[in-house]
Amino acid sequence: MSLVTPAxxxxxxxxxxxLRGFALMGVVVVNAPAFAVPIDALPALATLAxxxxxxxxxxxxxxxxxxxxSFLYGFGLSVALDRAARPGGSPAPLRxxxxxxxxIGAAHATLLFYGDILVLYAVLGAALLALRGAPPRRLAAIAxxxxxxxxxxxxxxxxxxxxxxxxxxxxxxxxxxxxxxAFADTVAARLADLPSAIVFLLAFNGPAAFAxxxxxxxxxxxxxxxxxxxxxxxxxRRAPLALAxxxxxxxAAAAALVLAxxxxxxxxxxxxxxxxxxxxxxxxxxxxxxxxxxxxxxxxHPDHILVRAFAVVGESSLSGYLLHSxxxxxxxxxxxxxxWGGLGSAAIxxxxxxxxASIVGILALWRRAFAHGPMEMVMRRILKGGGAPRAxxx
Length: 394
Prior knowledge:
mainly alpha; globular
């Protein structure tokens, strides 16, 4: 299937859209286990394939892709703030956008996925709006302190989760009950899990996401992002070092955590906490290397099939994010195929990648008919009001 989207607007930077779509792929991979097993359990790690899948997800996914996504969100908010500051501009559209994200996120958390990030982004966007006049040094200091808090919080959460998680075998499955029940049953189960999910989201994702939102804002204010060709070339010279240093540290930390899961007692709690902290500290380094590499590749080869695939999702990232919850729910929950609680990590990873491929295909087909993704059309109506959906040019 062709990924040509005639409705693409020439003013969009496809490399940034591709980076955003790439980040969303990682978000889908990291989120998939939350759809597949109870909130207090881990996927089965009975086979070598399961252990390798968990190791790969921890090393290259957990805590990485949402950093890229949050940076781009902060960048986008900064662009919107610039528009609001122009003569005749107003922050009202941005406030409406944040309010819409809050409402959509609340509905998403209730109906589809307790790990919703949209409510958090709405809150962080409001915080950035309040801090928009602060000096760059103060914002940089806040970002650094927020990320330091994130590393401490993440290390503690991971260590606590590993010490309290349910058994690694197949979880108890009672057909027609909870997440294996009808849609209303899954909503009730989700509401029961929502308080725990909110605490986790605020502690694990909140400080790190805020740091990266501020980083994206500062990068735009300083002119560092989007990078010029010369600046990007300089970043690319450092990217291999970031990939090597961040990747090796993340792989070692992930290996230690998997060992702590499959062989309880092998590592003491101080070693587990150190491994979790190492995973958090390596995340921005590895994320930077990945982001620079994807951005540079997308600029060099804008018409490559993978670049177009990532870009078609990145340009409609809100639709893609909500679609991932709908598709994963249809696979794992009782109102769909009902695979909840019955699969190991390797199968869950495979389903996550297939889900992302499905998102690419669905949005590519949609963009053949419409100029924007479905939820992007909703947001445009909220911001600008009225108007029928604009069909794609043939």
